[in-house]
Amino acid sequence: MLNFALTGPRIILAAELTPMINSGGPQAVIGFSIGLGAVILLIFLGSLSSRRSAKTRISSAPAKVKKVSLKRQGEALGLSKTHIEAIENILERNPGINRNLALSNPAILDKILQAGMEEIEEQGASEPVKEKEKLILFQIKQIVERNSRTPAGIKGSRNFSPGLKLVLSTEAKVRLSTRILSVLKEGLALEIPRDSKTGAPVKLHKGMNLAVFYWKANGQGFSFPSKALGYVRTRGIDALLIKHSSTVTEATQRRFRRKALQRPCYFYPVRIVTLGTGKAQEKKAMIEGQRGTLGTVLEVSSGGCSIKTSAPLARGELIKVDFETEKKNSISAYGKVVNYSKESIGGTMHIQFTRVSQQSVNRINSFIYGL
Q: Is the pLDDT of residue 42 over 80?
């Protein structure tokens, strides 16, 4: 019977087995074939094991590589060290989230930030500390969204639709609000703009150069050059006709995303008064509580809001506004009227916030981003 064996680490070679095969007949040949197959199998398995071991060694420390990649991505988007560390800390506690898509996939980023918000609520820190940490997470969302945005699908003015709101900037840098009534072959027929203070129609002479702006719902702005062509009548209404443009470019982006609200508010004029004399003199903001007026917040962002009312304040006036984003989610903010659009009854004030608490900012952001 064939005695095929491994002696220590030495394998018996085929050449050494030749005498055994010759003396053993057919059974020896079969035995030799089986043994040789076993040796080949052992060599193959050993090679496969070595490859797997090498792969394991190569990928044994991927976290550091990915961490550097996330840091570089964050810095390229404008995130600070504090923002990047906040993301890293959340990812370390939530290993199931795909960190490779943390800053490139909005849904993944929202998942990370939502996990962070839940952790903040569960911790035993004071409310001011919690609000500060929430604000950092909302800042991450705003910075990434703003700096990741790319213009897409920008088309010429012939592709616009009636009803689109526009802002015209004249050669004298006067800004006028209007909207498209009709898209005609020769140009855009616009609602005749009106003076924001008097409500009187503003006449633009033929040939006047204009810069035209409009914004999408997410705050992405666009502009194009045009000029006044005169006046036409469309759909039974007198309208301003401006020239079409095939060059529509992304305008300066809004800093914060806005969202429609359509909720009631109360606003109050604010006066700056001087108290005391000499070196003891100081200025204070005085809220005229007796002049509280009802309005409707049309849209809101963490940087401001627009309010429709029958008794608007003038451009440049200071204001305090109280409203809710949701039931029992009250907001109080101080601001300034930066623009005003007059309508048939009252008008719409555009407010820039000048002072608002972290809690109110976080409540606004929670409403806007759903976090």
A: no
